[in-house]
Specification:
mainly alpha, 4 helices
């Protein structure tokens, strides 16, 4: 049985932890938006809402300690895949690769409907 290189295993582990950190940040952002709009009153008591906010802050802090934010590593999967394909094709970063749209055809012609 062959073993994966340690660098690949670490990168995969960091990727999972980073995704959980991003989800924790999104939850906290949602709760802050809920609090700013006052909609929390429709769903929660004040003590429950404050408890949820505290838990969200604590969870985010823990995830940030496990995988600190890093702009170069925290990219959406689509961006990372496109950049990898561009690097293989020799296309500089920031320029769209021409191969991304090769073979893409519309399934339906909406003008005929």
């Amino acid at each position: 049985m062959s073993q994966a290189p340690l660098k690949t295993v670490r990168a995969a582990g960091r990727s999972v932890v980073a995704r959980w950190r991003i989800l924790a940040q999104q939850r906290l952002d949602y709760l802050h938006e809920l609090g700013a709009s006052g909609r929390w009153k429709l769903y929660h008591t004040e003590s429950d809402f404050l408890t949820m906010l505290q838990e969200a802050h604590t969870a985010l802090k823990i995830w940030q300690e496990l995988a600190p934010p890093d702009e170069t590593l925290d990219k959406p999967a689509e961006v990372a895949v496109a950049q990898a394909e561009n690097a293989e094709a020799g296309v500089p970063d920031g320029l769209p690769g021409s191969s991304l749209l090769d073979g893409v055809e519309a399934q339906y012609d909406l003008r005929k409907l």
